[in-house]
Design goal:
InterPro entries: NT_sf, PolA_pol_head_dom, PolA_pol_I, PolyA_pol_arg_C_dom, PolyA_RNA-bd, tRNA_ntf/polyA_polymerase_I. The chain is α+β, with helices and mostly antiparallel strands. It contains 22 helices and ten strands. The relative contact order is 0.06. Bound molecules: adenosine-5'-triphosphate (ATP) and magnesium ion (MG).
Length: 482
Amino acid sequence: MQTLRASKCGLSTAQLPASILDVIDALTKAGYEAYIVGGGVRDLMLGLNPKDYDAVTNATPSQIKEVFGRRCRIIGRRFELAHVYSGRELIEVATFRAPPKKAVTSAAGMILRDNNWGSIEQDFSRRDFSINALYYQPRKDVVLDFCHAVEDIQSRTLRLLGDPQLRFEEDPVRMLRALRFSAKLKFSIDPKILEIFTPERTQLLRDVSPHRLYDESQKLFTMGHLYQVLPMLIDFGIWRQLFAEIRPEITPFIERAAKNTDQRIQIGKTINPAFFYAVLLWKPFLERCDFYLQKGVVPTEARAQAGLDVLKRQATRTVIPRFAETFIREVWEMQTRLLNPKPQQIEALSNHARFRAGFDFLLLREKSGDNTTQSMGSWWDAYQLMSSDEKERAIGQYNRQRAKTRRKAAQEEPAETKVAIEIEPLVQEQEPRSRRSRKAKTTETTSRTSTQDTSELSHDHPILKRKRVKRDLSQVVFGPTQ
Ligand code: ATP
Ligand code: MG
């Protein structure tokens, strides 16, 4: 172990937010050891702005709770941690951990419980990469380096501690972390990792909970280097594990959306992580819509059911939370609305809660060469910048054009295939997941017409029985959907 002078490693307390210093000071004052560890130290050494700071101590979670009282909450089961609030910041405080005992690993070697407290040396050896295993005590101006991590930072190498195969088996999520750090930090991956990082080995991810994989996918989407990591996900076989139903190819739309996401993060704009899921799943969604349309399902129902199907299948890999699922389906539904809006609803539509996301999505489609948007992305783009007089004129012009197109279409198509525009809600809220799965179980046992069946829709499928209700549209107010 090397004890290095922190100031010589480019670290100083002046760079640190008051919140992390407050946590380190309170633990030290109570007689415990306390360090900053992980991404905070690594990023500061690289001259980057850390996303957050993690602290580690020899105090157990209940002792940490004693120190911070109501500012502290203990979370996690598999991996017990203290969340300490300092001002408006939240700092994760972990206790030094010893290697897990055999009894708490799965048959495949995956760690199921990891709450075995230990010494700092033991804690170091169970961290993932060397560059994430530096311990910084800011008040003493020291950095503890157990594994020549500083050299790895200087040579920009991502090296796993211990035997790579064993470390991936213990926690397959480390495979995702390897690609994330390599893309984010522009580090090369140690050949010892590359040797064993095969597409077959990514199958270990099948044992990781789809909830945890969703969280990890979000980290990949929001780290600011999504464009760099996407081809890596394909090359290493991770894509197939995370997005089984999505063809492993980076379409112009996906590429543009990824670059756009990274740019937004770079300039400090907010992003909704579910947006990129809406992008990834757009093609499977359209294909599923076609499937229902060909079976004679009315377009509104086809879209609703296709949305549910596609999200249900994705949930076998990454469980997208309910609110995010609703967001995704609303963005998709907005595509229909924005493509063919009723003239009298245009202004209301531009003020709709989902307008921004729906419009961004439409414009990304258009700019990546999707001409099915019929230039409506640019139309809405221009519309938003207009004065009220200009808007009125633009709507008038749009109305005339629309009437012309409809007349033409009416001459060409038989009347019954015409599609009416349905008005709100954008998305019918689903029943809670628990009830859905219970229902699904009973229907699965009684009939085999589940949505998984891609080949056939039986003639008595409920979706074919639904009738379109004729509504008095003049009475409908276009409003928020949630
Ligand atoms: P960032 O926060 O920038 O994404 P980080 O390295 O801080 O990166 P965290 O997920 O915040 O990542 O974890 C903090 C530290 O905990 C890591 O630096 C690493 O030392 C340890 N750690 C996290 N996840 C694992 C894991 N799956 N296996 C081993 N150690 C881990
Ligand atoms: Mg961190």
